[in-house]
Amino acid sequence: MALRYFLLLILFSIFRLQTMQAQECADTKLPTDIVVKRGSRAVLECSAQVLFWTVNGKTINTESNSDCGCEVESCGDLVFASILDDDAGTSRAYQCTIFGENGTQFKTAFICIEELPTFPNFFAPFQGTEGQAYNIMLPYDGTCMTLPKVDVLKRGVSVENDTNIQIQITNTSITVSFTTLTMADESSYTFNSENIAGIATTTIGLVVKHKPILVTKNVSPGSLLLANSTAILSCNYTAYPMPMIQWFDPNGGEISEGITTEVNGRLKYSELKLDRLTQNDGGSYTCSASNVVGSTLNTIDIQVTGPMNVPWVTDRAANEVTVSWDEPSSEYSISKYRVEYKKIINNGISMWLFGSEVTVGTQQTTISNLQGNTNYMIRVVYFASLGQFYGSSIQFKTSQRAPVNPPVSLVAITLSNSILNINWNKQIRTY
């Protein structure tokens, strides 16, 4: 009894399955174009109680066909176990013809094998200008022109649409639109384009052209400087394209001497050296950097102070001089003085020589071992809390030496009321 009931249950299930299949096949369906991956299983759908398939006009049997490597399933779908290049393309037209209550209907469908998207090679970065709108348009080729799934990464982080960035995707290109380009947008961007064939990736660079931006400015040894000392003013800019840097004095005149520049990537360093400062050199110096995008001005203020005392010669002889100078203000904390001298040589260069060194409280010293009837320059070096600086120099000439051997045996003869004839002998020097 149990066995009989089990057999009846099996027969009922078979009958119900056949009924459902008949109902499914009763719904007519015509094929549409499909996009597939090479080597994958593919199905061209077509359903009716009665139908037949042709490929390029040749009838396809319900069994396996060597012409297309395909077979027709029970309800009419055309199935490919592994799609090949010969099965696809516009030269392979698959037509399904169905017969039903509405008469005869047919439709042709094609199979397209999708390839990985290919991007062009970009060896140079994209270049936009700060403050302006800019588009990165990345074309790519896809065999079936289907819309891919695209992910845009900026330094590894996904870029999302916002008020400044919009990503537009078509079946031929990817466009990233910037409403207003900023320095923060400068980066490398990775584009991942995915379709059924896989994922293609390319990375491009975006460079933002911008006017110079001041990185640092400095004055060495400090903004308060001593007279006759040396100051080095510097400013450091970053810019793209590389800027031109100019220096202007407190009166607005361009400075052309004492300037050095150095370039390191996008950084441009400029240095202005000012020697032998005077109080008239104090003020605001301007460092200007400019490129095609714009210009930036920055000022560096310096104050020049310190004794401007000029030494003077109080006593002079053939081989020595006595030099005096005024004592500077106590605010400079002078610790000692050094007097230096050098001989003036026509069309030549002479070195400053050590003459004498004295402590604070003494503003006079004597320099010996000089040559008679000779032009010299002399200066005072001040040793202060702010550093060592040089006072103004003066020029002087030593006296002539007296003759070593005076004449002897002088004889004077009056020739007239207005003429006197004098004769003498040269003294013979004995040792």
Quaternary organisation of the protein chains: single chain
> Cα distance, first to last residue?
167 Å
- Mean pLDDT equals 85
List the uncertain runs.
5-23
What is the number of strand segments?
35
Major β-sheet annotation:
8 strands, mixed
Structural Rg: 51 Å
Q: How many helices in DSSP terms?
A: 1
Strand content: over 45%
Based on secondary structure, the structural category is: mainly beta
Helical residue percent?
under 10%
Based on Cα principal axes, name the global outline. rod-shaped
List the helices and strands and how they pair.
Blueprint (H helix, E strand, L loop, with lengths): L1 H25 L7 E4 L4 E3 L5 E6 L2 E3 L9 E3 L5 E3 L13 E7 L2 E7 L1 E4 L11 E4 L4 E6 L9 E6 L2 E2 L6 E5 L3 E6 L8 E9 L2 E23 L3 E3 L4 E10 L3 E5 L5 E2 L3 E6 L2 E8 L8 E8 L4 E11 L6 E5 L4 E4 L11 E8 L9 E7 L4 E4 L7 E10 L2 E4 L3 E4 L10 E7 L5 E6 L6
Parallel strand pairs: 1-9, 10-17, 18-25
Antiparallel strand pairs: 2-6, 3-4, 3-7, 5-6, 7-8, 11-15, 12-13, 12-16, 14-15, 16-17, 17-19, 19-23, 20-21, 20-24, 22-23, 24-25, 26-27, 27-30, 28-29, 28-31, 31-32, 31-33, 34-35
